Amino acid sequence: MNCYYHKDKESTTECISCGKPLCRACSAYWGANLCTHCIKSTALKKRAVFILRLIAVILLTTLLFYLFYCKIGGRTPTDALSALTGSTGSERKTVVFVYALACIPVGLRAALLLGRRFAQAYELSGNRVILCFIAVIAGGLLLGGAAMPIYCIWLIYNTVKYNVTAKAAKTRLDKLSGKNVKSKRTKRRKIK
Fold first, then answer.
1. Beta partners for 14?
2. What is the pTM of this model?
3. Are residues 123 and 29 in the same domain?
4. Same domain assignment for residues 90 and 24
């Protein structure tokens, strides 16, 4: 059987996702036995998931801040801005406390991700896993406000990473299908 992308080469493996036959060069290109179509579709799906998570994190934190500070506290959103920029120390502390309180779900999510990776990396089992998760969750509760921007940066990083992978897969598909793929530099030269 011949390779799906290179008709003149003998296939050595199959894509583990869709079963397309792949030659040695195609299976080694991405570092896994996945065809370019599957790499592209997986990258696009993961990018969409990370974008949705980022939007959900920002909306949830904003909603919780509004609920705690404005509805329960009886203040307006402009009070929060004036408290941060103004000179009243007690109001500033209140805003920071409510922000940290609103970030607790994000801190817990980041803590659970970190705890799972830590437990897998050090091959923890039994009571040690439970203690690890208790320590990480406590840290997530205490450092919720600090975990929020870090978690958002991690989500943005993964979104960009999967976007780059999807673009690389599209370029490779265009190249394999024989489309005339020109770089941006040649297009710019022709426009000038």
1. 21
2. 0.70
3. no
4. no
- Mean pLDDT for all residues in the chain: 81
- The DSSP symbol for 143 reads T
Domain residues for the domain of 90 are: 36-180
SS3 (DSSP) at 23: coil
Parallel, antiparallel or unpaired: strands 13-14 and 21-22: antiparallel
Whether residues 118 and 146 fall in one domain: yes
CB atoms within 10 A of CB 129: 17
Residue 187 in any domain: the answer is no
- Give pLDDT tens digits for 132-161: 777 777 777 677 777 778 888 888 999 999
Which tokens in the block code for residue 79? 């009070």
Amino acid at residue number 8: D
Please tell me the total count of domains within the chain.
2
Q: What pLDDT, on the 0 to 100 scale, is given for residue 179? A: 64
Element containing residue 149 per DSSP (H, E):
helix 144-177
Q: Is the pLDDT of residue 107 over 80?
A: no
